Amino acid sequence: MIYIQYYESCLGRLTMAARYGHLIGLWFENQKYELQYPGKLSDPIYERKDLPVFEQTALWLDLYFSGQNPKFRPDILLEGSAFQKAVWDILLEIPYGQTMSYKQIADIIARQKGIARMSAQAVGNAIGHNPISLIVPCHRVIGSNGKLTGYAGGLFRKQKLLDLEGFGRSDQKES
């Protein structure tokens, strides 16, 4: 059974999904990709329920949207291919208020695999299917030229999230 709960943010409603007591999904309403499970949220596989992991996630989101760097991570379970998980693990290492390019991530993956090159497009596809927005910070990935590219929740949200983190400012909030 997959359980869901909702969170109202300044950037729109977020859906939280959990299974086995772990957060497995967090996405903005109407974003490009949602939880990749058979059926729709109205199907019986989904049930609305209050769970401790939803309380943890809501607290994380409260801190984040108030401009603070949450110093903890809710209990997450990332489900995907080995390649996707490798990319998402790198995303988890991008510090609050900082960015990394798709190419930089592709270079890290290539080194990990012991190969000469990795496609930044393949990395972008894995990032685009990140099931846990914000907490697995795919919004911190930008183009090699420093421009905002791709975000399943919409580029306007990506810009707002980076602004919220104080990206590019010397007075970033570290609370």
How would you summarize this macromolecular structure in one to three sentences?
By secondary structure, the chain is an alpha/beta fold. The chain is built from five helices and six strands, in the order E-E-E-E-H-H-E-H-H-E-H.
Which secondary structure elements does this structure contain, and how are they paired or packed?
Layout: E1 2-9, E2 12-19, E3 22-28, E4 46-48, H1 52-65, H2 82-91, E5 100-101, H3 102-113, H4 120-128, E6 141-142, H5 155-164
Parallel strand pairs: 1-4, 5-6
Antiparallel strand pairs: 1-2, 2-3
Helix pairs in contact: 2-3, 3-4
Describe the protein's architecture and organization.
Its main location: cytoplasm. Its EC number is 2.1.1.63. With 175 residues, the chain is an alpha/beta fold. It has helices spanning 52-65, 82-91, 102-113, 120-128, 155-164, and strands at 2-9, 12-19, 22-28, 46-48, 100-101, 141-142. It is globular and about 45 Å long. Mean pLDDT is 88; it is low at 169-175.
